[in-house]
Predict the structure.
Amino acid sequence: MRFDWYAATIARHPMEVVGTLRREFGAEVRQTHGLHGYTQGFDLVGPHGTMAKVLAGGANGNPHAWASGEDTERFVQLVRSEWPLEHTVSRMDSAEDFQGPGSWDRLNAECLEVADRLRLKVSQAGDYHRLEDGRTLYVGSRKAAVFIRLYEKGKQLRAKVTQGAELIPADWCRLEAQVRPQKEARKAAAFVTPEQAWGFAGWTHDLALRCMALDVPRVQMNVWRESDDERAFAFMVRQYGHMLERLRRDLGDWQCVGLQIGDAVADLWRERS
């Protein structure tokens, strides 16, 4: 499972964001027009096209950046390593691929069962007549915080290429959760895995369990309240958990780890004073 779209608002100077993306991606920066109230736009362009986009300026405040498709994972790693506590997530798409006879029929049935049971909106697009160019099933409202797409990725790619179509599996399907975190959950989303993104709604949690045997924690988007200190502590544990565990083994127990950290912090304050 992986992120297929990741959009973040980053509390840093726009040129720092653009410059970091340019350097780490080895990309060319092309200035474009602004969108959605932003007055400036920047495309980070590599050998195979645009790798990421940045919007800046105007009344929106901090710059907004995003990547999609094959460049998303690299973008996520960069944003989370460079600005772990300075970014919030406005959209993340988590995708899982399936292949094998009957993949579409099984996944389609599971999605429709959940949709019918909960009276969720359902719409369809693509080649439902000849079944050649690929079908897409949408569950939920496009305006909602969580939205699902199921589509025949293999057939869609086969319809686009001029040669080598037979090398693309026709039964390749992709199930994708599009999540637009709300309120304080945008901060929490900066640390979640692609799997955990399926926990931002009860019905996507249910669907992940049915389709992928994936039981992820639920995130209550409208009641999430996490302080900056809690976010910083969570980041420290994720970033340095393995090192702390090695330290525990060396020292004997967690109490000794705490004492060593306390001594190190005290030494730091003495040096600064």
